[in-house]
Amino acid sequence: MSGKAAFARGLVWLRSDLRLHDNTALHRAAKGCRELAAIFIACPKTWRDHEEGEPLVSFRMACLRELQEEMGKRNIPLYFLELGEFSQVPAALRQIAEKLSIDAVYANAEYPLDEQRRDRAVRESLREIDVPVEYATDRTLVPPGSIRTGSGEAYKVFTPFKRAFISQYGGDSYQPLPAPHSRKDNGDWPAWIEVQGPNNLVQTVPDSLAGYELSAERGGTVLGWQPGERAAARRLDEFSEIIDGYEDERDFPAIDATSRLSPYLNSGAISVRQCAHMALEHNNDRWSGGSDGIACWLGELIWREFYTHLMDAYPRLCMHKPFKPETERVPWSGDELAFRRWTLGKTGVPIVDAAMRQLEQTGWMHNRLRMVVASFLTKNLLIDWRWGERHFMNNLVDADFASNNGGWQWAASTGTDAVPYFRVFNPYSQSKKFDPRGDFIRRFVPELRGVRGDDIHCPPDTPDYPRPICDVKETRKRAIEAFAQLKG
């Protein structure tokens, strides 16, 4: 390390950024500190309060174990501490900073409301002992709040947000940052230290957490997903080979035409900059034009950006509130039995059931189908979107709060830039259009494998498969009438 480092000893606080390459906080800490360690703080009670389920947390912890091994190769110790709640973090980090003689703490910013409150409290706590805390922009391409309308407000509609993003920031190639070099002389870091609270600071990532089983299969996979930065890089490389066909094939769930990078983006095993850089490299640094497939996928990255910026600008989205206050008056049905059948994939509507079983079996769902099942729940069954949002958070391996909330409010017509309430996805026409041969349905609904032709989309009576839970035409009318009354 150069003698020009600003601090003698630094600590990188890892959260949803579990990678070595292109990690802004880690990069700055490695440059700014002569000695360096990292820490990850698990708060399982708060995670449960935030509806973060077993698939998400299991994948997160599996990625953390992969990262700890790689950091060890670079002589950067990674500490682990399990607390209960976010509220315990400021005091714990202060103790750690004092006992390890930390001179500066680095972290990448997070934007949900509780995370922002926690991070402000940490900064205040460490300021009292003269330890600065630096939060870097890393989860998004640009800082939330940096893209504003002419009147200085946050954008509420995606298309003008996208235009403004490309106008202001489209010239950047988003060159990823390098991983830190191996540190030959990195001080004498203890294997553990005592911290006031339920657990001590240790250099071992545990196999269990309070309230979570941390389920993983042979080889360390979680519901078939290989964790870690190397797996993420492989997936990005694989997608780069097919990205040109993304726009034409992305809506067909039987085809492997999407990136499947969302679990890695959410855990931080790969950065959004790395994704954008790959696509821009393949498209001559153009966000629009060139390859239709690449431009379309870059647009999806901007959607992710949009929802995070929106959440930052409107904290009520983190409080189980609809973006449109008047939609609080929607007469949701509260039908728990219908909701249960939806979660189990037993609605009698094949494309909906196949999608819900894909979620249960893989912890993931094709994006087109996320829209289909959300529309079916909120419009045809007229069940509160928050029930569906919570179920997805509990079962998705890629459960990102901002994107999940934004997607559900879009489908339920309660959010900003949402689908108009009078547009209701017809699951049968969606099935015929995007799974025309029924290959996806047969894969996840084995009861229907013997059904031939177009009957796969709306099968005849069979003893092994339920009748449809509702009439989609009649329930569509009911939903439109319910939303129309809000305008009265």
From TrEMBL:
Pfam families in the record, alphabetically?
DNA_photolyase, FAD_binding_7
Q: Which reaction does it catalyse?
A: cyclobutadipyrimidine (in DNA) = 2 pyrimidine residues (in DNA)
Q: What class of enzyme is it?
A: lyase
> Which residues are listed under the site Electron transfer via tryptophanyl radical?
W332, W385, W408
Cofactor needs: FAD; (6R)-5,10-methylene-5,6,7,8-tetrahydrofolate
Among the GO biological process terms of this entry, one is: response to light stimulus
Q: What molecular functions are annotated in GO for this chain?
A: deoxyribodipyrimidine photo-lyase activity; DNA binding; FAD binding
In short, the EC number is 4.1.99.3
Domain spans labelled Photolyase/cryptochrome alpha/beta: 8-141
Q: How is the cofactor bound?
A: Binds 1 FAD per subunit.
Keyword list (alphabetical) reads: Chromophore, FAD, Flavoprotein, Lyase
By sequence similarity, the record places it as follows:
Belongs to the DNA photolyase family.
- Protein task: Involved in repair of UV radiation-induced DNA damage. Catalyzes the light-dependent monomerization (300-600 nm) of cyclobutyl pyrimidine dimers (in cis-syn configuration), which are formed between adjacent bases on the same DNA strand upon exposure to ultraviolet radiation.
- The protein's name in its UniProt record: Deoxyribodipyrimidine photo-lyase
Instruction: Give the species.
Output: Microbulbifer yueqingensis
